[in-house]
Structures are given as structure tokens and as C-alpha cells.
Amino acid sequence: MSRSGRSVQYATSPLLASKTPVWRSKFIVASIAFGFLVLAGRAVYVQVIGNDFFQHQGEVRFERTLELPASRGHIIDRNGLILASDIPAPSIWAIPEDVDIVDPDNRARLRKMAQLLGVKPADLEKKLAEDKSFVWLKRQVDDPVAKQIMALDIRGIYERREYRRQYPEGEAAAHIAGFTNIEDVGQEGIELAFNQELSGKAGSRKVIKNRLGAVVEDVGDTVPPLDGQDIQLSLDDRVQAVAYEKLRDAVVANKARAGSAVVVDANTGELLAMANYPSFDPNNRQNLTGEQLRNRAMTDVFEPGSTMKPITVATALQLGRITPQTVIDTNPGHIVVSGAVIHDDENFGVLTTETVIQKSSNVGATKISQRMTPKEMWDSYTSLGFGQKPQTQFPGAVTGRLRPWKSWRPIEQATMSYGYGLSASLFQIAHAYTAFANNGVVIPITMLKSTEPPVGVPVFSPVVAAQVRKMMHMAASPGGTAPLAQTEGYSVGGKTGTAHKQEGKGYAGNKYRAWYTGMSPIDKPRIIVAVMIDEPSAGKYFGGLVAAPVFSQIVQQTLRILNVLPDLPVASQTSQSTLAAMAH
Fold it and tell me: Annotated active-site positions, please?
């Protein structure tokens, strides 16, 4: 078609030939302009006037603050050995509405994930049905397992970086270290006592996430986590292992209900070991019982029995009422006080103060107590920490019981002289004996490694402390109540205790607690060791037969660990078999 032909055709078109009204053009232009004005106004409102509201709405929908967990501090022993530490343990979570459980390929991957998580596929699907937006599938899985799960690349499945507490020493140090819960918060022991210091401070990271939950952009500055600080204990892991092993063996051999042992550095007051049996594995806390969890050395109180006799004698010596050679007539082997009869195991006849301790005479201790007033005894006992809450960082330490002296009757003053009528924990007994090891000065026991000399309280004179140490050495020698406490190469001294257990308002006739508390070397003590065996039932129950051998074994190995030179020639010591025969 020619160019002229096309022109004629356009010119003759009725539609194109008609005239458009001017108002229509103006209306269209005005509408467009109005539309731009509305958009501009809306933009001003969104960007300026209502900016805070829309910014918040955007943040609610897409901005997330991710917590960056802090690593919990280590618990270490005095030599730097780790007792508790964090290890990576990712947690697996899901956005259920994004998980496709219909697709056959995805179902196969979900079955594989269930296998890795150690759950049944049906249980996994049930968990995914609990919530649409968020559900934990499993907290704190092993790191290799988490990597295998994420490698499955299942949409809607995510991991969160977390930490799990690990306790390399297991049962041996369980009651010291304690444990944390799944949120890494301390629940028992040092974990609880120093939770704030160990915890650190979590960091944060602000991000923009898309609707699938994937991070697409960081917003603002990232606040890095502040890891918790390490806590260094006075505990020596080698001594702790020895104390736990020997205690466990004794409890099992004597068919006892339980046992505890405490080892203290006599010079510094540092706690070197504190063991309890039964114990538990803090790495696997399923089916735990209160019997396993109790730190008996700290939380259980008992009548300490004859371990109180050296304290009674020391108080009388300090007051000048007796001397080591004062004659005490214990004939005929019993004494009546306020109508009650106090017995010895046998009639020891005429004793000196020294042999009252050596033979562990209840009658002798009673007669010595009668030379003092109740207030004088009470003052001495309280100065050593009895009836007082222990000044220790450890949670759960109990006060024990020591009634005010004004309410003491004569029979109560008598029984307290040999350890009945008051109560204390094994920890408190060990603490009281620091006075004998430190020339009469009782020093606090600390659970943290210390570089400063302890600040103590004088209770007895150095002369009295030395005199009582000599008496305790006699008690641990042939002719005393605990020759089995002797140990090869080192001189020892201490005191047995065998106390009937209370039941209701009276005492059980066949249930006992056996104690032994002492120190070594005797002239210049380096360690104090206290041992308690609860309800031995294999035929022996005296402290000298049940608890003293544990003391001996702990002392010998501990002093060697501490590189303390022997103060006795090995050849001059009586063999253990001979000692055993004498004990019987």
C-alpha cells in the first residue's frame, strides 16, 4: 500500500477524526498528578511522620537479636587440672510449618535425622506437630551429630550453638564441682557457689531474617560474649582421687551405708580433698537420688563422740585445772551423774590425763569436765566453730547444734565432754582440729587456692596444743584405741569416735557412726584428715577399726604426693599385721 493510501485511510477513520473534549485530557492529567501527590504524602508519612511505627513493624517481622552464648569458666584444681569445662553441644530446633513431611525424599531425611537424634520417626513427627513457629527437637547433642543433621539440608531445621558441661574427674570430685542444668546454670557445689563468676555474659547479634528464617543481613554492631572466669580451687586432684578411692573401698568392705573424708592443709587451711560415698557421675545424672547428691561432709551433722575428748582436755589444760600428768581415778569403770550411769568399755582404773585420751575413757572425760563451768566449756567449743555456721564459700554447709550453756544440766555437761548432746559435721570437726595443728590457733578452711597466710583465732596456747598432740599420738600408738591409724614413714596422732546413731528420741542399739580425726607428722603437722563411716555392718564398728585404716592410707599417700619427707625410719615401725592383732 502506498504512503498516500495510508494517509487517506487514517484521515477517513471515524475514531481518529473525532475531536477529544479538552476536559477529559485535563481530568486524566489531574488524576495522575493527584495519584503522585497521594504517593508522595504516603511516603512522607511512612518515612517521616510514622517512621517509628513502621520501623518497629519491620523489626518485629524480620529483625532478630541472636544471643551469642558465653563459654562458662573452668573449674580447676590447685595445679591447674580441669575439674569442669564447657564443650560445644549444639541444640537442634525447627520451624515446623516450614518442614515438609509429605515429600518422600524429605521424609527419608527426617527418618535419618530421627535416627541421629535417637528418637522414633513417629515421635519426631509428633514433636513437629506441637507448634507451628518453634520447637526444640533436642538440646545439646554431640557436635559430630549436629554436623550430620545439618548436612541433611532439611528446610526448617536449624541448630543453635550451645555448650555442655563436662566433668573429667567424674564421681571422685562430683560433690566438690557440683553440676549445672541444661541452661548451664549452676545447681550444686562450686558450680552453684560461683555461678555468677563462672557464667560470664552472653553477647548479641542483630540480624535481618527472611521469611524462611535465613539470615540475610547484619544490623548494627555485634556485642561479643564475655566468657566466664576460671575458678581455681585449693583442691588437689591427686589427693581427692586417693581420698575417694580409699573411702569407697572402706564403705564397701564394711558394708556401710555411706562415708565421708576431709583432707586439710594444716598450715594454710586449704581444703585438699573432700570425698563422699555414695557419689554420682555429674556427666550422666539420670536416676539420681538424694543419697547420692548429698555432700555429707558438709550437710550431715552427727554427735561426734570421742573426737571431742581432746578438745575437752585442751580446755581444762588451758584453764590450768589439770596437767598432762594429773591423776584421774576412773574406778570402777562407771560414774553416776544426775541419776544416769556413764560407762567405759572396761575399768581402766587410775589414769593420767594423757591416758584418758589414750584409752578414750568416758569416765575420765566426765571427771575432767566437772572441773570446769558450763560457760567455760561452751566458750571453748564455740571458739572452735561448734554451733557456728562454717565460714566457707561452699553452699549447704550446716551449723550443727550446741545449746546455750545456761540450759546445760550436769548430765549434759558430762556427755558433751565425750561427744554426746551436741552435733557437728565432719567439716566442722576437721576445722576444730586446726587449733591443735597450728599451735593453738584455729584457722578458717578455704576451698579456693590461697597465696596469703591464714588469719586465725588463738584458742589454746602453743604448749597446750603440743601436749594434746602428744596425747593423740599415744592414742594412735600400741596401747591406744587406734594403732591402725599408724602409717609407714610418718608419725600420726588423732582420736577415734564411735557414736550410737539417734533414732527418734533415743539411740539405735546396733547402728553406729565411726570417726577418726587426726594429723601428721605429729610434731609439725602438714595435713589434717577426718574420716567418717556411717553404719558399718560387716562385724566391726569401732572408729579405730573402721575409720582409722582409711585415715592411715590417705595420710601416707597424701604426704608422698605433697613431697613431705618421712619423719620416722621405716624399719622401726610395727607391721600392719601386728597392729591389727593389737587392735583386736
Answer: 306
